[in-house]
Structures are given as structure tokens and as C-alpha cells.
From TrEMBL:
Biological-process GO terms, alphabetical: carbohydrate catabolic process
Stated name of the protein: beta-glucosidase
Record GO terms (molecular function): beta-glucosidase activity
Key words of the record: Glycosidase, Hydrolase
The species this protein was found in: Chimaeribacter coloradensis
Listed GO CC annotations: cytosol
Keyword Hydrolase: yes
Enzyme Commission number, as recorded: 3.2.1.21
Family: Belongs to the glycosyl hydrolase 1 family.
Entry-linked PANTHER family: GLYCOSYL HYDROLASE, LP05116P
Length: 471
């Protein structure tokens, strides 16, 4: 018998900027990614989401493919500036109609929508007012969330507020690799606090709305392992856990920051600054569920001397993201080092399915029996085309092992309710362009964005039909 319960949501995921295109269509306002991706050398080979894979104009074709695949649910994000071009105020009814039609099309194919309100594409007008560093952005987010609840809440039961705060704040305000391209940890901490405030206020608004359903938050799940048993490596690993996990999960699942880390940031930089009522707002508006995005684990070492390194692999040339002496890390805190026994992707992400089991159980141990959805998990690769067929055997192997890891966690008592591989379709991979492929559906950019089912499409179709049985 399958370890997966009846009603388990087998799905797949995308995000608005990465698939929709239509970046100026029908009254949509500009986002920070629309502006950033047009900067010289900001992305791999100057790629951007102006057209992406044109899901905006081809969503019915794409949803038909989802139906053929047998998907039970589809996780996607809404473009805030498509609905509110300046982030607040005047509603763009054409944007509302697009998402309303998409939701109806999904339901016609018996596919349950799971909406992410924010997957990084902040309206540019709000960034020009200060972005997430301005508390007014949190207020604007709640206005946006209320609009979405009003227009779509009659048909959508699963909502999440934010996707991967560690990425859009970490790369936006610490490494500077993403918009708004700031490098200041104090500003990062305050911006992150405003995200948590926005989340909690949006959860409160959801519950006040009276619409049925559940609302959660989506975080990166990145387990850490110390390089050695040396006390300094173990301490560095615990600090990485605190920053990458506890700081991001505690506010939405416990309603508070980890006390020791909070004391450190406030001692160092005087942030986060709390407005009156913030404590109660966080404490009284906990998530109904947590979404976990799992791709890799990191091996952690002490970093007493190294400067912060900002090197990353965006080319898909294996090894370029883990050069000795150029590891990503923070002086005096920790660094991420290559595991000599690890198996890595072309983008230098370690493939370690056991980390998914361990990570799910670690969340259960710290936060109790919170419902869990695996909201992203996938292999970014340059898929081979052989005699016209996209033969992505490596993806099949990767997903098979991670599905088995989820089954193991369920058998050990975790309440995992759904699995959303990243991604349904090949899409724009942010800074990596279109060469880093994740999808079950191939997009031929040389043939008018024609869709083609990959080998993994037919494999996943059988997985869904068998409720996770991989025989």
C-alpha cells in the first residue's frame, strides 16, 4: 500500500514572473524584476521575463496539459502589479479577469489551485517608496491580499503569503544579487521584519474575511551538516540553522523570533525595530500550514578569517560555485563548503534526498504537528534531446528518491499533505536564464514556445495515478 494518504495533493508549481510574460499587457504595472532584469549583465545572457513562456496567453493550453498529467493541484503565484499596477489603489480588472479565468480553467480540470501571494515581484512603485524597508509596503500588501481574498476566495482554499524570504531578502539586501541589489545586513533584518508583519496582518485579514480555507507561509528547507565534529564546525552549523531556519520559521509558526538571535541582531544593529502591537500581531496569527521548498543541504564549516564571498554558479558549469577559498559565507560566522562525498548537480547543489526526510522531521520536532506541503522540489538540468524526445532520466531518478524520502517521513508520523515539484513547465530560472530546466514540459524557444511532454511527464503521470507507488 502507498504511504501517501487518500486525497494527497500531487501537483506541480510555477511563479508568475517566471512563466507569464505579458509584462506590459492589459494594464499590468512594472515589478522590481521587470526593471532589474533589464539592467546590463544583471542576468545570465541578459534573459528576462518579458515573454517568459507566455503562459499569460497560453494558460488554457498549459492547464490542459496539467489535466492530462493528472495533477490534483497547481501551485502558482499572482503578480501583484498585474492586479494593482502601483501596488495599491486602482485595481486592474483585466488582471483580475486573467487569474479568475485561470482558476476556473483549473477547476474545470479538477485541479485545486494553491495561490502564493508574493513570489518576489514587488510592484516597482512600492520599491520607489522604500520597498520592504518601508512599513507602508506591509500595509499595501494587506490591501492586495484582501483584494485577492474578495475576488478569488470563493474558489481558492489554499493560500500562502510569501515564498522564500531567505532568498528575496538575502539576495535582495545582503548579497545584492537580486533586486533591490542592496548589501547591508541591518537593512535586511528590518525589511525581513516588515515581511513577517505583512504576513501576520494578511493572515488576520484572511480569517476576518470568513472565506473557507487555510493560509500558510513557504520557506526554504535547507538542512545543514557540520564539516567535522570539531567544536567550531558544530557551532558554525548551529548558527547556520539559526539564521536559515529558526529565524524564518519561528515568527510564522511560534509567533516570535529566536531569542538569542534577536538579542544579537539588536545588539549589533538595533534591528528589527518593532512598532507597537507587532509582538501581539505575530503571536496571534500563526500559520495553518507550512510550505517547504527543498533542493539541497549544505555542509557548514567555521569561517574565522574568510571575507563574505558572493560567488555563485549561474552558468551550469559544474564546480564553478564551489571554488576553494571562494565559498559563500560570512566572516566570523560560517561558510558553506563542498562535501567531498557528495553528489552535485551542474549548478553545484548537492543531491541528498535523506535531507528531505530529516528536514521534515526536524520541523515536526520543533513546531509540533503542523501540516506540511512540499511546495517545491526539483532538479535543474540541461535536459538531453535524443531523436526528438526529451530524455530527462536524471530528473526521474531525482524525484523518485525524494518521493521515497517523503514517504519515509510520513511513515514516521509527519503530516505531509501534498507534493509540488518545481516545476510544471520549463521556465525562466531568475538569474540562470532558460538553460536551467526543471519542468515536466519542455518549451522550444526556437519554435514559437511550442510545448512538448518530456519523459518525466509520462513517469509522473503514473506516479499520480498510483498515489505515489513507484513500482
Amino acid at each position: 500500500m502507498s504511504a501517501f494518504p487518500d486525497g494527497f495533493l500531487w501537483g506541480a508549481a510555477t511563479a508568475a514572473y517566471q512563466v507569464e510574460g505579458g509584462y506590459q499587457a492589459d494594464g499590468k504595472g512594472p515589478s522590481i524584476w521587470d526593471e532589474f532584469a533589464h539592467r546590463p549583465s544583471a542576468t545570465y545572457q541578459g534573459t528576462n521575463g518579458d515573454v517568459a513562456v507566455d503562459h499569460y496567453h497560453r494558460f488554457r493550453e498549459d492547464v490542459a496539459l496539467m489535466g492530462e498529467l493528472g495533477m490534483k493541484s497547481y501551485r502558482f503565484s499572482l503578480s501583484w502589479p498585474r492586479l494593482l499596477p502601483t501596488g495599491r489603489g486602482q485595481v486592474n480588472e483585466a488582471g483580475v479577469a486573467f487569474y479568475s479565468d485561470l482558476i476556473d480553467e483549473l477547476l474545470k480540470h479538477q485541479i485545486e489551485p494553491m495561490i502564493t501571494l508574493y513570489h518576489w515581484d514587488l510592484p516597482l512603485a512600492l520599491q520607489q517608496e522604500g520597498g520592504w524597508e518601508a512599513r507602508s509596503t506591509a500595509d499595501a500588501f494587506v490591501e492586495y491580499a484582501r483584494l485577492c481574498y474578495q475576488r478569488f476566495g470563493d474558489r481558492v482554499k489554499l493560500w500562502s503569503t510569501f515564498n522564500e524570504t531567505v532568498v528575496f531578502i538575502g539576495h535582495g539586501y545582503i548579497t545584492g544579487a537580486h533586486p533591490p541589489a542592496v548589501q547591508d545586513p541591518a537593512r535586511a533584518v528590518q525589511a525581513c521584519h516588515h515581511v513577517f508583519v505583512a504576513h501576520a496582518a494578511a493572515v488576520a485579514a484572511f480569517r476576518q474575511s470568513g472565506i473557507p480555507g487555510q493560509i500558510g507561509f513557504v520557506n526554504v528547507l535547507q538542512p545543514h551538516t557540520p564539516r567535522s565534529s570539531a567544536p567550531e564546525d558544530v557551532a558554525a552549523c548551529e548558527l547556520a540553522d539559526g539564521i536559515y531556519t529558526h529565524w524564518l520559521y519561528d515568527p510564522v509558526l511560534k509567533g516570535e523570533y529566536p531569542a538569542e538571535l534577536l538579542a544579537k541582531t539588536q545588539s549589533l544593529w538595533g534591528v528589527p525595530r518593532f512598532a507597537p502591537g507587532d509582538d501581539a500581531l505575530l503571536r496571534n496569527n500563526l500559520c495553518d500550514f507550512i510550505g517547504l521548498n527543498f533542493y539541497k543541504r549544505e555542509t557548514v564549516a567555521a569561517n574565522p578569517h574568510g571575507e563574505t564571498q558572493l560567488t555563485a554558479n549561474h552558468s551550469g558549469t559544474r564546480g564553478s560555485g564551489h571554488q576553494p577559498g571562494k565559498e559563500f559565507g560570512f566572516k566570523g560566522l560560517f561558510k558553506f563548503v563542498r562535501n567531498p562525498d557528495g553528489i552535485y548537480t551542474d549548478w553545484d547543489w548537492e543531491i541528498y534526498p535523506q535531507g528531505l526526510t530529516d528536514g521534515i522531521l526536524a520541523i515536526k520536532a520543533r513546531y509540533g504537528d503542523v501540516p506540511i506541503y512540499i511546495t517545491e522540489n526539483g532538479l535543474g538540468a540541461k535536459d538531453p534531446v535524443i531523436d526528438g524526445e526529451v530524455v530527462d532520466d536524471d530528473r526521474i531518478a531525482y524525484l523518485s528518491r525524494h518521493i521515497a524520502a517523503i514517504a519515509d517521513a510520513i511513515e514516521q508520523g509527519a503530516e505531509v499533505r501534498g507534493y509540488y515539484p518545481w516545476s510544471f513547465i520549463d521556465l525562466l530560472s531568475w538569474l540562470n536564464g532558460y538553460q536551467k530546466q526543471y519542468g515536466f514540459v519542455y518549451v522550444d524557444h526556437a519554435r514559437g514556445l511550442a510545448r512538448q511532454r518530456k519523459k518525466s511527464f509520462f513517469w509522473y503521470q503514473k506516479v499520480i495515478a498510483g498515489n505515489g507507488e513507484l513500482r
